[in-house]
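Weekly structure sync, notes
Attendees: PL (lead), two postdocs, one rotation student
Agenda item 3: pending single-chain targets
PL asked that the sequence for the first pending target be pasted directly into the notes so everyone works from the same version. It is reproduced below exactly as submitted, 255 residues in total.
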Amino acid sequence: MIDKVLHDAAAAVADIPSGATIAVGGFGLCGIPSALIEALLDSGAIDLEVVSNNCGVDDWGLGRLLQAGRLRRIVSSYVGENKEFARQYLAGELEVELTPQGTLAERMRAGGSGIPAFFTATGSGTQVADGGIPWKYDVEGNVVVSSPAKETRVFTVDGHEREHVLEQAIVADFALVRASKGDRHGNLVFRQAARNFNPLAAMCGRITLAEVEELVDPGELDPDQIHTPGVFVQRVVALSPEAAADKRIEKRTVQ
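Predicted structure, written out during the meeting:
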């Protein structure tokens, strides 16, 4: 088996070119690959297309790339925590493909499973199916790119006919994920809610980079506890204790 560990995040992202499509794990700020995102910011890559549940917050996570003007397009489902995201979208600086959350998850999983497309009832009878959702505005607020109409088909489910929408799978050039534990072969374990979109992002990347809070030797992970097998992961970066502990909170509520 190949030892997939690189010495730092900068080495892991060094060959990600401008214009690449990148799938990023995490949900809000939970389980985001913050070290790899920072390394990508430092690399200078521009015109990136990101596939992620959300775009971080204004000063952390993918929000860092957004603030620097590095993102050309994002495929996402929830973007409500980022004011700069809204500003860029409405100002015509950013193309945005909003996708129902479960559909986005399945599009990523399908891409990693070799399934080119699938039918889902989600979005039937709405603009998700009919098209016309604004993807990009110009500086004057006119819609210049909108979502296309999608193929629909009626299936009988539980004795009832229902329209379903054809959704395309997502395969990204690279994927960035964060795991609680990982070994040198790329097997990953995610902790509790940080599991979220990370396994799906890891699956759909042609080249997947994983930052791990704890690096262990092969054989130390219980095979029954592995969430993402090493076949999906090409590069592993072990975080320092300080980097592993650097976890932000979107909203802190106190009584």
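Discussion points:
- Residues 183 and 216 are 5 Å apart (CA to CA).
- Helices lie at 9-13, 34-43, 62-67, 83-90, 101-113, 127-130, 198-204, 241-245.
Action: rotation student to compare against the earlier draft before next sync.
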